[in-house]
Structures are given as structure tokens and as C-alpha cells.
Amino acid sequence: MNFVITTKLAFTMIFRVKQLLSAAFVMALLIGISSCKKEDMSMKMPDLFPRSGDSTSAEFMKAQAMVRHLRDEITKHPDEMKNYIELAQVYIQEARVSGRHHDYFPIGDGVIAEVLRRSPENFEANVLKSGMMMTRHDFVSAKETIDKAIAKNPYNSGAYGVLCDANVELGKYDEAVTAVDKMMSTRPDLRSYARASYLRELHGDRTGAIEAMKLAADAGASGQENREWALFNLGNIFLNQGKLDTAEFIYKGILEERPNYAFAMSGLSMVHAARKDYPVAVEMLVKASQTLPEHIFVEQLADLYKAMGQKEGAEQMEKKALDAFALHEKDGWNIDREYAAFCLNHDINLPEAKTRAEKQYKMRPANVDALDTYAWALYKTGSANDAIPLIEQAMRMKTLNPNLHYHAGMIYAKAGNKEKAISELKYAINENQYLTPLTMQDAHTTLGSLDGKTSDAK
Amino acid sequence: MRNRAVIFSLLLAFSFTLLALPAAQAHDIHISYSQAELKGNDLFIKVSYYKDDYTKAVKNWYQGKADNMSPQELQSAEFEYVKNYFRVWANADYNQPVMPTLVKQSDDGTSIIFELKYSCASLTSLIIDQRVLFKEFSEQMNIFFIKAFSKEDNHIFTPAKPTYLIKQ
User: Fold this and answer.
1) pLDDT band of A54, cuts 50, 70, 90
2) pTM of the model
3) Euclidean distance between CA atoms A395 and A171, whole angstroms
4) How far apart are CA A166 and CA A157, in angstroms?
5) Nearest-CA residue of chain B relative to A161?
6) Which end of chain B is less enclosed by CB atoms within 10 A, N or C?
7) Where are the alpha helices (DSSP H) in A170-224?
8) Are A216 and A235 in contact, with CB atoms under 8 Å apart?
């Protein structure tokens, strides 16, 4: 009896243990699957995507080898954070040179998130994270993140670079100058000179901006992408002055050092557009877009078609540009200001453009671009008088940007302040007789009508 | 524009490893450029297509047979494809498209470039129909500039508007 009972009990216990084990196994399996799934969602480390026309270049091969090496190192030493950081940097840089932001940024995000999961205070990961926030135009969060990082390590030049950029975007220009000064004193290099150049330009010091950008370019090696970017910006300073020959010389020089550098092609396109040589301007932009799928080139194509008076072509390009904005937005970018500026320049979706411009202005009321865009939106939607204090604040630093002064001139003209309108439009045209493909004609016509004579449209 | 400039300069902050040049495979901008000039009885057209897209279209057109082609055969297939989808008729004679001769075919790594010559006599009008890459990419735009009959004009070929007419 006892034996039977004992046996029954034993069987029952064995059965229950089996049940428990099965349940535990299923649980473990589920947890495993769920954690695998979580891992897969949070961090991927794929090979780089092929770059057509460049997949066999030494630079690409080196980058690809770097990804494989770092991935191996991470597998072998999962607690070594510097490997994750370097891997994230490779993906971010690849996004920059290939234009595949939508592919690489989520991968970079995943790698950075993994570092922060393992080591929430990791300095480099927080700097990278704030940089990604800047790229997506989440300026407030970027500033908060970089401030915290710098509080823990005040000796990193790259961190001050991000702080400088965040302050610029938030309109805190004095703080941006302080940040770039610290950056220069920590490590004067291409990155710090380039930022110093931009800040000097904003403050109306064009000579200083040119000097700093030359120093930035000289600090880079010939043919390397960052040097060519600095030279491209140097060319733009001359282009904005209407010095087409100098700008063209610089852009062509870039293409000699780095053939097929898409931004140099777009710069050349703008030179040809200023000369009203539209077929070549369009050809250069198409070539740029074939080389690097940056949607700024589509926006510029839309500008050119509008400047050519090709309504249908402009509408087709506008649609393409708006599609690209939607794609960026879907991927989490804040493109309110860019969307507004594009629509205002093309006289499309004006109510939405105004709403977005206002949102940006409220978010960063001291930023020159946000002020200028909202003022332009008010002008375009029939509130020129309301635009005046905004555009005046945008010009408070005596920025030489002729387009800003063109906007001011048009706003004053509509508000009935003829004297200031003439002064601003003359200033804009004297600074750059070509302005932009879209504004050239308007500026000359308006000035001509205000002056009571026909201005010589170039 | 400026925002973008700052953002790009921002990315310089992370350029510890300096890599290479552009051109992505998943290319989301589908635009080609072509220009034409009528000189006497000869219409010269130079057209450039994004290489990856174009190769994909040719392979689709040959339904897998292109995979086994030699480089020379593939080059010739590429010309056949453009001949088929970039057509020209002279003087509204729809029965007889003008067949091009290949002046030059080149590849700069990013783009495939064709230089074509269409010879016709006593021209009074030209009809141009361009549908290159339309099957592959519904948003493809083929930009076209032309100098003919003492005027300059341009057109964007799209799936909705694949045909263009210019008269004397």
C-alpha cells in the first residue's frame, strides 16, 4: 500500500516536475527568442552597402575591412566600448559619403544605443548621440546631451564642436563663439577652423571667414572628403559675393583633387545658373544627384526650373522635393524650417509653410535662419508689417548674406517703407548681383519699380 | 541651406576615419539628363543614365540572359536597350522610326553615357519618345534639352508624358 502510494506519488511528482521543466523550457525559449529579437532590433552590424562606381576603391575597401574587423572585435570583447564607438563612426561617415542616411543612421543609432545600454555615462557615445540628434535637427535635446557630456569631460574638442553647432542652431551665438574658442584651444584643426569661419561669416566678417576656411582646407589632406567640403564652403563664400570666376576656380579645383565630388558639381551648377546657362546648370545637378542621392540637389533643380520659367518642370521637381521631405520626416528628422523655406520660395503650400516656420521660430526664436524663414512666411502670406521686427532681428549681427537683405528689401517694400526697401535691395545686389536663380529677377524688378526706373537685371 | 551646411560641418566632428566618395546603390533620386542638337540633317543626342539603374533595366529587359553575357555583349545590349526606349521619328512619319548610330558609349563609374546620331533628310519636325527606365522606376524623370530649328527648348520625359514634339 505504502509502496503503491509512494510509487503513485513518485509518478505524480515526476509528471509534475516534467510539466514544470516543460514550462520552464518554453519560458526559456520565449525569453531567448524575445531577447534575440530585442538584440536584433537594437543593434545590427551589417557590411557596408556597395557604392556603385566606387565599391572597389581603396577607401571603400578600407572602410568595409574596418567594419568587419570591429565586428569581430565586438564579438570577441563585447565589453570593450571603444570598438562600438569606432563602428558607429564608420557607419555615420559612410552615410555622409554615400548619402544613404536613411540606411546607415538607424544602424549607427543601434550601435550607440548598445553602448549606452551597457555604459550609460560613456562619453564618446553621448557625444555621438548628440551629434545624431543635431543631424535630425533635434537641437534642444542635442544641447542637453552634449552639456551633460562636457560636464564630465571638458577637454574634448569634438564635443565642443557639437556644442558650438547646437548653440548656433538655437541662436545662442555668443555661446557658440565661446565653444569654438575652447575647441580651437583644445585642438586647432579642420573642424574648428571650419566652424570659426562660419561664425565669422555670420558676424559679417567675410575676410576672416575666408581666412579661417582656407586654414580649414589646408589642415586636411588633398583628396580627402573633409578638405573638399571645406573648399566647397570656401567656394560658396565667393559665390555668395557674386565672384563667379573665383568660385568656379575653387569648385573645379575640388574636382581635380576628388573627381565626382557631388557638392563641387552643385557649386558649379550654381555658377552656371548665375550666368543663366541653365542647360549646363541642370546637367551638373543631375550628375551630382547621380553621384550622391542628396535631396538638396532636387530642391536646386526645382529652383532652376522655376528660374527658367518652366512651370511644368518646376512642379514635377517640387513634387519630388516634397516626397523627399516626407521621407526625412518619416525617419524622424525635423525638417520644418527647410520645408517652409522651400515652399515659400516656390509659392506652394503657403499656409502649411507658415505654420511650420512659426513652429521653428517659437522653438529657437534667436536663430537667424528661423527668424528669416518666419519673416519670409509672414511676407508671403500678407503680413509684411509683422515680418519687419523679425527680419531686423535676423540681421542684428550684420550678416552679409545677400539673400537675407533681399528678403528685408522685399518686406520693407510691401510694408511701404520705400527708403529702407531701396537701401536693402541695393545692398543685396551690391553684395551679389546674381543673388540666387530665384531671386535675381525679383530683386532687380522691385528695385527698378521703387527707384522709378528699370534696374539693369544681370 | 545654412542648416544643412552646419549639419555637414557637424558631421566633420566624427570624421576620425576619413573615407571615400559617394554613389549609393539604393538610389532614391531617379533623374537622367540628355541634350540634343540638330546640325543640318543630323540630330546628335548625348544622354547619361545612372549606371546601377540602367544595368538593372537592361537585365530586366533581357530576362536573365544578360547575366551570362560577356562585357562586349552586355555593352551591345545596353545600346540595344536605349535604341528601343529612346525613339525618334522625323516629319511625323510614325511608320519609320529613325534608327540611331552609336557615336560613343562610355561609363564613368557612376553613369552610362551614350552619344547617338540620328540622320534624317528634309526635316520639318521631330517627335521624340523616351521611356528609358520607366518600367523599373515609376518616378523616373528624363530631362531633355534640345537646340533645333533655330530654337532652344526642353522637356521632362515621365511615364505620364513620354513624348515630345518640336516643329520648324
Assistant:
1) low
2) 0.84
3) 12
4) 14
5) B13
6) C
7) 173-186, 190-202, 206-218
8) no
